[in-house]
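Researcher: I'm comparing several assemblies side by side, and this is the next one on my list. It has 724 residues spread over two chains. Same procedure as the others: predict the full complex and return the structure.
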Amino acid sequence: MEKRITVNNTDLKTFVVGVLKNVGLSVENAQITTDVLISADCRNIESHGVARLKRYVDGIKTGIIKLECMLDIIRETPVSLVIDGNGGMGQPIAYHAMKKCIEKAKQHFMCFASIRNSNHYGIAGYYTLMALEENMIGISLTNSAPLVVPTFGKNAVIGTNPISIGFPGKNERPFLLDMTTSTVPRGKLEVYSREDAAIPDSWACDEKGNPSIDAAKVLDNLIARKGGGLLPLGGGIELTSGHKGYGLSAVVDILSGVLSSGAVGLDVYGKKGAPAEVCHFLGVINPEAFMGLDELQNNMDYYVQMLKNASKADGQTRIFVAGEKEYEAMEKNKTTVSLQNKVFNTLNEIGAEFGLSLKRID
Amino acid sequence: MEKRITVNNTDLKTFVVGVLKNVGLSVENAQITTDVLISADCRNIESHGVARLKRYVDGIKTGIIKLECMLDIIRETPVSLVIDGNGGMGQPIAYHAMKKCIEKAKQHFMCFASIRNSNHYGIAGYYTLMALEENMIGISLTNSAPLVVPTFGKNAVIGTNPISIGFPGKNERPFLLDMTTSTVPRGKLEVYSREDAAIPDSWACDEKGNPSIDAAKVLDNLIARKGGGLLPLGGGIELTSGHKGYGLSAVVDILSGVLSSGAVGLDVYGKKGAPAEVCHFLGVINPEAFMGLDELQNNMDYYVQMLKNASKADGQTRIFVAGEKEYEAMEKNKTTVSLQNKVFNTLNEIGAEFGLSLKRID
């Protein structure tokens, strides 16, 4: 087991905001970005938490991420927005766009935004949560660096392109799906590579396009651009329906990058040192567009209970509903959160430059 | 190889319309239903084609499917509809609802309809195609009989709940995804069962909830309600991300049945001899809500070509885009279509009751 270190959430917040302010973000944008990152850690999605701070800081320093966060509205109707993020930080861009969607959905029943020229925006589910907090239905999709190989291909052309969608409950917690359209995200290969364990053959393929069980080799190939990569949900062959995950990944690319005339597929992170041109698609649906909030919540409770109460497989004691594990983690990590030793040390190295340090409490 | 028989599409159409009129459908609704069925055969989705005519005829005779097709609009906003289908035929209900969505999307940029108390509506992609024919983005989802086992469960609680979404191209054909959220539909198990071949372990599970490679046993268990069933996209375990397919299936149930206060999960086809209470979710997005039709089509062409032109895996010569195979089948089957011998004979048995016969042309 890797060593872990516990920190206070408020200490962590002060520290990360401090770093982001020092590299030049406005207070508001530093706070938004920090909240997205720490939310990921609290929801046990460590791969998208403060462990990414270094990448963001480096991105800002090298100019790939612009400090200013100017949202240009390219087109607007009562129920839609096309936004240009002008290469700014992904988190504040998506946060402000989602706020606009919520406002418009209150007035006009729904709103969808397609956003171009942004950057990595953290966990997709954060923006869905923003809608859920307003008792609305939330949708959050983003394209990402090409790491996934389409069915019958051998090179990574599409992203892990996550889909998040959430519906509010009444007595039950919201249903909150947040999933990559690849079988697994890249981080899972890194874990297996460190442990030298074989990966299931639906996770990744080699440079010839054949399913691979060697995580280290797949990661090396991706870095050296030799071919191969992650596989879509369903795996690398039609027999196990890998073409469905590939299709869903393409839908995310289209809603995010095609509808906004932004970057898609290979063009995302397409030029080294140039803006990443990540695109997002956000949506909010007001329950009043359908049967209203009260019926929606009651119906959701009924449905969620039907799923949870279904008969369990031999050896299993629970059937989970999307988001349940993350909500339980969030409740557990309300005041403190544990970080990998390595992540804790890297944070302090980043902070040292600005005279900031993060203290451990265990 | 099973014997096949070729028929003329117009003969087939006249025959199926004739049968449906004779069991009591209006001319218009008989024509709509027939077009949905034959479109499936022409697109090589035989499981949802005229092979299903007997089930529809039986459904009407036993009163599970109502002859009248009355769409009650329960709630309406400029961009949404909640519709009660009053237990009528699924195809005309979904057809008329999609027509309304298209009209509203022309005026208000988009429209989504959640529909309750309907019946099996054929291929999801048919309604998406209706939007594509108007150069709009189409969405079509439906819940279905509970045949799929959620992750960590052992009984079928959710449907194969398909997702269809389509985007128009300019020189390229439209991108048209039409997929069940289970790894495979039930029909695939039937094929393997007939051939006595082992199925991949991500397709189905036994009555204890463990992955099974025995198609015949899984089908027997489903019929006898002994437990087990189809597995969600990604398979039966978390390691291969079966929980993602399960989550997507639930989203379809929620948009179709929860938003309309209709039936979900186990309640679909819940009582023998009673209305099936199938629910659908349809949507149309006008490209003018985003960058307009011209840019959308150009961007789609660019994206589709990027996918098609990507490097092929060893031994492969093509990368397909969603819907491509079905469009090619449709072009091939423009004037004639081939049916399984068994299907052809069953059609003539159904027709005999009304003095109708279908002639073969080979």
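Model: For your comparison table: The radius of gyration of chain A is 20 Å.
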